[in-house]
Write a structure and sequence with these properties.
By secondary structure, this protein is mainly α. The chain has seven helices and no strands. The chain has a single domain, classed as de novo design (two linked rop proteins) (Up-down Bundle), CATH 1.20.1440.20. The N and C termini lie far apart (139 Å). Residues 200-225 have a biased composition (Pro residues).
Length: 225
């Protein structure tokens, strides 16, 4: 009788430990899922800010210069698709943002040919805000993908995989960017250097540079008496 009681207590202890482990793994899945969803919401906020800045950038460019219309049309169309991708998931959003970044790269390349944009403070301010927004998106993407990697890895390990199926958890999508141009924040630094005017030519040896005064002649020494 005493042996049966001991066996019963051991079985109950094992069941309690097993149930506790299952509850712990389930709760961990739930916490990871919530962290991933929260980190994605932060990225989504920055993406919306990015789209607003692009819209303002297009309007400022239209007002400041007779810009190439085809380039502006491409940017507007890509921005519209990116805005429409909100809520479609990280994978679809990543594809839309990649197309938008391609249009932006072409936009900034064409902008190099317009010196009046260099003097437009609104344009430069918006461009700087875009760079800062891209930095925050990049940081948020690394944080989000790191959480997704840890979460998805648990689906491939035992016994957490059983808990995932029991709890009806699903793997999360990565926010992937295949185009290296998307990883780099668009920048106009140095883009207008060629428009600031030619540099002064280098004078031949022994001649003063253009715009400078020649040195005064050395005083004559009297001949020895």
């Amino acid at each position: 009788m005493e042996a049966v009681l001991i066996i019963l207590l051991v079985v109950v202890a094992i069941l309690v430990i097993a149930v506790g482990a299952v509850i712990s793994m389930y709760n961990r899945f739930a916490r990871q899922r919530n962290t991933i969803e929260e980190s994605w919401r932060q990225i989504d906020v920055e993406l919306q800010r990015r789209h607003d800045l692009i819209g303002n950038l297009v309007e400022v460019t239209k007002a400041a210069a007779r810009f190439e219309q085809q380039t502006l049309t491409q940017v507007v169309a890509a921005r519209t698709q990116a805005v429409a991708a909100h809520g479609a998931g990280p994978a679809a959003q990543g594809q839309a943002e990649q197309a938008l970044n391609g249009a932006l790269s072409n936009f900034f390349a064409v902008a190099e040919q317009y010196p009046n944009l260099k003097a437009n403070q609104n344009f430069l301010d918006l461009q700087q805000q875009m760079v800062e927004t891209e930095d925050r998106i990049a940081a948020g993407r690394r944080f989000y993908n790191g959480n997704v990697r840890a979460y998805n890895t648990r689906f491939d390990t035992f016994p957490s995989s059983m808990v995932a199926n029991f709890g009806k958890f699903r793997k999360k999508e990565y926010y992937e960017v295949d185009d290296p141009n998307v990883r780099a924040a668009p920048s106009l630094k140095g883009a207008f250097d060629s428009l600031t005017g030619p540099s002064a030519p280098t004078p031949p040896p022994g001649q003063p540079a253009i715009g400078t005064q020649p040195p005064p002649p050395a005083p004559q020494q009297p001949p020895p008496g």
